[in-house]
Amino acid sequence: MAQDNIESTLHEDRHFPPSTDFLKTASLSADKLNTLYEQAKNDNQVFWADQARSEMDWQTPFTTTLDSSNAPFYRWFPDGKLNVSYNCLDRQLKDNADKTAIIFEGDQGDVQYISYRQLHARVCIFANTLKAQGITKGDRVIIYMPMIAEAVIAMQACARIGAIHSVVFGGFSASSLKDRIEDTQAKLVITADGGHRGGRIIELKSTTDSALESGCDSVEAVIVFKRTGHDISMQSGRDVWWSDAEQNQSSDCEPVWVEATHPLFLLYTSGSTGKPKGIQHSTGGYLLNAITTMRWVFDIQDSDVFWCTADVGWITGHTYVAYGPLATGATIVIFEGVPTYPDAGRFWDMCERHAVTIFYTAPTAIRALIKQGDDIPNSYDLSKLRLLGTVGEPINPEAWMWYHNVIGKQRCPIVDTWWQTETGAHMIAPIPAVTITKPGSCTRALPGIDAAVVNEQGEEITTANQGGYLVMRQPWPSMIQTVWGDDQRYKDTYWPMFDGKYYLAGDSARRDEEGFFWIMGRIDDVLNVSGHRLGTMEIESALVANPLVAEAAVVGKPHEIKGEAVFAYVVLKGERPAGGIDDELTQQLRAWVGDQIGAIAKPDDIRYADNLPKTRSGKIMRRLLRTIAKGEEITQDTSTLENESILPQLQGKV
Ligand code: WT7
Question: Which protein residue's CA is at the shortest distance from atom 20 of ligand 1?
Fold first, then answer.
């Protein structure tokens, strides 16, 4: 594990206490928060057991809080039974049945309101549909859908019958979809004819067809939701329209009570080596932290309209669209489209029209909208907003200040939430009515979360602002259970150091004088492009799979909007193009990577060289490649290079 010198260069002294406006209605005060911290400190397990009893309905109460006998395969609430869909929907039927659960807005501006009663009925009907397709507890179901209410209905229906869903982001290619189908051995794929995005149609069914063309033998059926109505082909005996499959299904569906440790879903994410990992999440522990963070970090209240802009293809869309908000009886907004269509006012227009009170998005979206100027947000009524959030990457202080001034009008606290696909829910984040925030810091670990910054030996770094490894020293309920089908990879990736006692997040971080956490970046070969993780190795493998390519190395290059952009160095099997330039080939390789992984992974730059720079032991000198990608001067020792003449080639000078 290479760790470049971790040095802190950022200095930020501004700090922002919660506004008096926010304090008027906030529910978690400093006193109550202190009590939570105290309780967690006294006995972490008793603390989580209390939370689990008060926040969730159990069909069979648990008697054991945490089974650590097979660490790091921790099992929370192992003898308890519950159902996530019951906790999200049935619980609302008594007092809240007519409350709006989902406000859906399509790309084209079509709006639908779905009450809790209606959502419950639609989930039950679809759960019965799944049963009629032969899906039972433990079966895997792939969901490859646009960002529409039916994606959430499909997830909730799986949860209702104990089926394990794996949502694949609609922007992923046929080949990525196929990999996930094969790894999960899914019996069923739920998709749509297509989706609308920025005025265009996203093909989902035809991509599914390509994925299923060869292999994927586990798939018995494909359910297709009609969204766009454009022409697609249906394979008889395999494909069935959602509306046909639902015919005559009852709106009563007794939930299947599952063990708290039963997997609720798998979600694939990139690592530094090999193919994407199927992150396995539990039922009870996962839902618990989805709920506690909705309360503590988002201060969710009955009157809120909560909008998390993430797609259900990512973890944020699981925890803060499909599960957490519904389990707390909130009204959520689901949006099919993009922030810039029909124009760059779309988010703010929707905040005004739907009276959004809590808005949660990614720094990359904020940066893109800043470029459009202040006049656009200033022309909308954003007065209903009371809380803002960000996630996905460190937010640069300039973007934070813009969010604070132009969107929040200095009235809305900003919660910068640090977490990961693997952590399931927020881990380090402000408590909006209490924390005095600083632009760029995710502040403090939440109650019950034991986050620390340690050195190679696992000793806590106590010197302020000195960087180290971000670790969790105690298990927490919504933690990853394992990597699907690969327990060894789970151990190797997340518990490789410190005698396997600490969870290694893969980020470097520092703590300031006050103990606030500042995330500094990844310690492995993982890029963060627009708030999404991409393994450099994955993109390299995709490039090398092209018949023209002999070798490839991929690094990140800072990018104004995306955070990081993909920069590829390629060695061809044939001649290096004259002057290192071949626009046509570059377009071809970009499209190739798009087909292999998805558009998000396409390299922004490709540079051709006769060779890659390697150390004596044959390792690619990535740090050197990063320096070159940034266009910085080379200060590293390059004397070990076999062929120093490639340097100008890598720099694009010849
Ligand atoms: C990685 C996790 C969690 C949902 C979105 C991404 C980075 C995430 C922050 C933040 C600084 C952040 C980390 C982390 N990250 N949130 N608030 N400040 N960095 O999920 O794809 O699993 O990626 O995103 O590097 O390890 P993910």
Answer: 420
362 CA: nearest ligand 1 atom: 5
* pLDDT for 329 beyond 90: yes
Strand partners, 454: 460, 469
Average pLDDT, the chain: 95
Per-residue confidence (pLDDT) for residue 2, from 0 to 100: 36
Three-state SS annotation for 99-148: CEEEEEECCCCCEEEEEHHHHHHHHHHHHHHHHHCCCCCCCEEEEECCCC
Let me know if 458 is exposed, middle or buried by CB neighbors in 10 A (0-12, 13-18, 19+): middle
Looking at the DSSP bridge assignments, the partners of residue 75 are 67
* 646 to 479, 610, 631, 633: CA distances (angstroms): 45, 7, 15, 15
Which residues share a beta bridge with 114? 102
Pocket-forming residues, ligand 1, beta carbon under 6 Å: 269, 315-316, 391-394, 416-421, 442, 505-507, 519, 522, 528, 531-533
Q: What is the H or E stretch that residue 376 is in?
A: helix 375-378
- Cβ neighbours around 345 below 10 Å, total: 20
| Sign, Cα dihedral of 315, 321, 322, 324 | positive
Quick one: pLDDT at residue 641?
A: 79
pTM over 0.85: yes
Q: Which pLDDT score is estimated for 9?
A: 52
Under DSSP, the state recorded for 599 is G
Calculate mean pLDDT across residues 534-552.
94
Question: Ligand 1: which of 316, 504, 516, 528 to mutate, most ligand atoms within 8 Å of CB?
Answer: 528
